[in-house]
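User: I'm writing a short methods note and want a consistent example. For Pullulanase, I'll paste the sequence; you return only the structure tokens, no commentary, since I'll be parsing the reply automatically.
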Amino acid sequence: MSSTTRRSRRPLAAALALVLGTATLLVSSPRQAAQAAPAPPEQALAQWIDRDTVVWKGAEHSAAQLEFGAHGDRIRLTPGSLSPSERAASPHLTGYPAFTVDPRDRHLTGTALRGKLLAVQRAGDGRRTTTGVQMPGVLDDLYGRRAQQAALGPVFRHGRPTLSVWAPTARTVALELDGRTVPMRRDDRSGVWRVQGQRDWAGKPYRYLVTVFAPTVGKTVTNKVTDPYSTALTADSARSLVTDLDDPRLAPAGWSRLAKPATVPLRRARIQELQIRDFSAEDRTSRHPGQYLAFTDRRSDGMRHLRSLARSGTSYVHLLPAFDFATAPERRADQARPGCDLASYAPDSDRQQDCVTKTAGRDAYNWGYDPLHYTVPEGSYASDPGGTARTVEFRRMVQGLNSAGLRTVMDVVYNHTAASGQDSRSVLDRIVPGYYQRLLDDGGVATSTCCSGTAPEHTMMGKLVVDSVVTWAREYKVDGFRFDLMGHHPKANILAVRKALDALTPQKDGVDGKKIVLYGEGWNFGEAANDARFVQATQRNMAGTGIATFNDRARDAVRGGGPFDADPRVQGFASGLYTDPNSAPGNGTPAEQRARLLHYQDLLKVGLTGNLADYTFTDTTGHRVKGSQVDYNGAPAGYAAAPGDALAYADAHDNETLYDALAYRLPPHTGPADRARTQVLALATAALSQGPALSQAGSDLLRSKSLDRNSFDSGDWFNALHWNCADGNGFGRGLPPAADNKDKWPYAGPLLADPALRPDCATIRGASAAYRDLLRIHATEPAFGLSTTARVQSALSFPLSGKDETPGVLTMRLGNLVVVLNATPDRQHQTVRALTGERYALHPVQAHGADRTTATASYAPGSGTFTVPARTVAVFRRGQ
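Assistant:
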């Protein structure tokens, strides 16, 4: 899952290994998970799904009632059944007893929903059975249509703000503004509470005082809560601020005239995934280390490198969560630092991780997958977290990236919240208890995402997703969005986001919404799995929508093994399976290795097509198959309907970096130069594929996190990017933190102690230059941007695929190009007899490029033979 609060996902690892195969996943810490999802004091087995119907798991199919109020008021229920439309809307409830609300009592519904509510049934012997009642369905039915049209949060008109919050179950709502209390008025048709303010309210701190029944504590409480639709915050998210994002004072110079880099369609996008603090925290040339403003430091090493990637063909920078999250103290004075001389310890010492871990919960570092306010920039990245500096500086960051030739993608996490119930970090659930979180059949909050899951299938949570994304697009000119755990969203919700963005125009909104790209994690697991509650936004279901999903198939094939393997040495295509075995018993016999490698090569072929379901080719058994007929852990490998549906990648922030994964898997005797060549080869399987591709920032520089597989809270020491090669690549900074890595320490220690695994400057620079050559080839060759399955089928083939295919070598023909990926430790000759007499030569970018070993690749027209050095990807072009 590459997502969420990223604390140790050990509680989910075993189940997810089965559900996802080897899709990336992390989880929150047991401590945080316990705070995030407190168990309700009593179960809520009844679900009021609309104004007419209640479903009650475990009830007798006989008369029942809903009881509420101090005087035992009731709503009578008679045995009934779900209508076809109700079964379609709530498929997970179809097997439970259903009850119909007595028409004589329907007028009591609004009152019943604003206090403690119990479902009650008496058995023939007089026994009384009671349970709590889940209310999201009936709230949507009563209020959703009108509330969906409401403008929530602070909205300014002629300089005067109106503050609005949806709280249909609240008894009262008031505004706490700058220390005084202002009453708010309820709209009974929508459940929205509003108050209109004066001009002098602008800039003032506020909270809502919401008096509401809270099932998790079994009583009525008055919660002091920030605004879910906040547009600005005080430090540490203590208060919302009455802020108009259209205020000219919040616009940096040139903001209204911001020139975007040329549009790159998603199918051609090459994306760098980057964490804001990682980018500059240890960059001595940056004037704003760890801040948004580091992206305005044009002369810093980091920005110089990003510009070089942009010139080579990188089109987007994907920023890990930059919305307001819960785990990092925002004031620098409050941020703890490790109290040790970390650099003094041995490369394989456990002292570094011990020291970093002691301050991890109080330092400035976290990936930020624990949302607090979805639509405000995170304050710890701002020069001053206490006001609107974060708004201005986020915008300046976008300007800086755009001026470097890069569009900006935001990683957004709407699938869960940092906490639920009455936790102080719970915002949504303290305003409308039991609505915004996804509840299980017993009324407990779903935590399959690692934390307190949200329910975008509910009208107002779905609205919040759409409204938030549109705000980031319109007010911050963000160019794309990556949805964390997108499979936990309904497909309809993500399509609603697409529709809302498409409606944005330069004339009306200052941005062209149709040019904004969308992609996400389409994993299929948890309580929503297999479309149990709605049609999910999963890999298979999103095919054909133009919204991409991460393709874990090719990633696993190129790396080998999976993130949950007990032995991290299980090899893959790039890491020497069969062709350069490392002696790990988990790799199997030579015959088993050969068979698995050839199957990996079929997975990579499907990946190079853009993971197309209907692309037809000859597999390594000699059979003619479609991409969808190639097996991936029991699921179809190919699922895309067109290039652009699947996003290729060899590594991302989750799990070990590519360099670290290869460090485990390559034979120990493999030297630094060969490790670098393997890294470039592995990156090429994504960089030279059809469809979009992503790489983790620094992978071209052989970035290491000292073998840390889950560095979400491992601080700058393990995470920071090192743009200056003299500082190394991060390998050998100590054993990785014990919480998620201790079981791998016996494998990690000897590697970290080996100085041969720490590459020198020449090796790092050479790898980066070779990767940029691949980006240039991709950017300048139209054949890498084919738009349909039919075009890919016509232009792309694997001429040597079949029973006699060379293990460890892939040969792809693409229009006027031939690409040979030789992952073996030996020079290889690939003869394509159909090309005998044709005029091919090594692509000029590589022939005159940085890697002189690749430059020795050759072609013999008399036999149609391509000769490629060991651990090399070579691109040949036919002469004109």
